Amino acid sequence: MFSDVLTALAAGFGKTLQIFFLTLAGAVPLGLVIAFGSMSRFKPLKYAVRGLIWIIRGTPLMLQLIVIFYGPALIFGFDPWGGANSGRLAATLFSFILNYACYFSEIYRGGIESISKGQYEAGQVLGMTRSQVFFRVVLLQVVKRIMAPMSNEIITLVKDTSLARVVAVSELLFKAEAFTKSQGLIWPLFFTGVFYLLFSGLLTVVFGKLEKKLSYFN
Amino acid sequence: MPILQVEHLSKRFDQHEVLRDISFSIEKGEVLAIIGSSGGGKTTMLRCLNFLETADDGTISVDGKVIFDGNVQNPQNFRSTDKSKMRSGKKAVRMSDEELRAARRHFGLVFQSFNLFPQYNVLQNVTLAPTLAKAGTPDEINARARALIDRVGLTEKLDFYPCQLSGGQQQRVAIARSLALSPDILCFDEPTSALDPELTGEVLRVIRDLRQENMTMVIVTHEMEFARAVADKVIFMADGIIEEMGSPDEIFTNPKSPKLRSFLGNF
């Protein structure tokens, strides 16, 4: 029995990890694009992006997932996701990436705006282009400053993956719940906590190492 | 022919005129010191020369070539927007980023607050800009950077990071960094104002050495003794205008303007 549960949970955890890493891979760069949009000097773009950030941060991720998965079919009679498992996962990733990119963008914006004007000016008077100033002078300083809020957000993502359950993506919690429903077992549900704890513990160690690595400057 | 000629330079922030009709010139190898109380426009003048601010009117010429003309162009750095220009209805022709960088290349600027890049060590701080500008092979850039760092006396600190250096050492690195692209004119914006008194000497000594090597320099400073000793020409600025200009002797021994006299009386 125990090994059956463990095998099922491990499979679910695989799906959880898939959501986690694909969301990060999409949201980390998309967040930067959104951050630039929210700082744009072109006002219509700036306000449009800030409006989007307001909606995404102001509503529950679960609601966003439901609307994104069911909305197109119900409202427009067109289902971009299809009923298959891959479609459910795609809708999940779409909502997660959009949601996390918006949160990341605000962290990035705070980090970018915290860099002193003197750093930009020093780069400028040395004849650097705008992108050189950003990527070669400012970026690493921003990375260092946003480490703590980013690790917070990323550890939240570990647990948010369980929201994919509402569109029946077979992630960790979904798998455990199946045992409760079919066999009346409650402990597999409790046992998922071990996976979450171990993984977030590992992330904490990784982030600690990264912070240490960047501690050579201030 | 003067290496730097500034004519009728003006700058307004909203309604406030920060610079009014500033004209002066310096010859190659000369040192110009700019003195005056805070808010007199000294720093804004330097920032206009380095295109960190956009002057509203006037011209800046280097070696006989006009690199800025307020009547035809309105170069802007990416942080400021120039509303006064729009109000006056002049046609604003922006310099391209490329032209702006080429114009900036004539000048180096040493900041009051050093502004070294914290994530790079001393050598990397000096090599970064020439590397990005592809100003030579990596070996050439490296050799030149080491020579500059040696010139400011920091050879033994090559692989130190800015946070491991004293303020005076940081400022000396900043001087080496600003020389890495061989500017025609090196500008200093109160280079010792952020330093503890015992550290100003080492920075001033480097500037003196540069003078010996005939570097053309424009120095905004509150160090009157130093200005007097090192400058060929002194400008006293007050309320956005050049109140008095002359040799160090004329300025410090025979000040004519009452404002200059009362300013010097504070020291």
Biggest β-sheet strands, sense, barrel of chain B: 6 strands, mixed
Helix-strand pattern of chain B: EEEHEEHHEHHHEHEHEEHH
Give the oligomeric state of the chains in this entry, treating copies of one chain as homo and distinct chains as hetero.
heterodimer
- On the 0 to 100 scale, the average pLDDT of chain B is 87
| Counted beta strands of chain B | 10
Helical content class of chain A: over 70%
Roughly how many Å is the radius of gyration of chain B?
Answer: 19 Å
Radius of gyration of chain A equals 21 Å
- The number of helical elements of chain B comes to 10
Q: Shape of chain A, please?
A: flat
DSSP strand content of chain B: 15-25%
Largest interface: A-B, 25 and 32 residues
Name the beta content range of chain A.
under 5%
- First and last CA, distance of chain B: 35 Å
Average pLDDT metric of chain A: 91
* N- and C-termini, Cα separation of chain A: 54 Å
For the secondary structure, the number of strands of chain A is 0
How would you sum up this structure, described in words?
- The complex is a heterodimer of chains A (218) and B (267).
- Chain A is 82% helix and 0% strand.
- Chain A is mainly α and 218 residues long.
- Chain A is flat.
- The termini of chain A are far apart.
- Chain A has 8 helices and no strands.
- In chain A, α1 (2-38) crosses α4, α4 (85-114) crosses α6 and α5 (117-125) runs antiparallel to α6 (130-160).
- In chain B, the strands form 2 sheets. Chain B has a 6-stranded mixed β-sheet with strand order 6-7-8-3-9-10, with helices on both faces. A 4-stranded antiparallel β-sheet of chain B has the order 2-1-4-5, with helices on one face.
- Chain B is built from 10 helices and 10 strands.
- In chain B, 45% of the residues are buried.
- With 267 residues, chain B is of the alpha/beta class.
- In chain B, a hairpin with a 2-residue loop joins β1 (4-13) and β2 (16-26).
- At the A-B interface, α5 and α6 of A face α3, β6 and α4 of B.
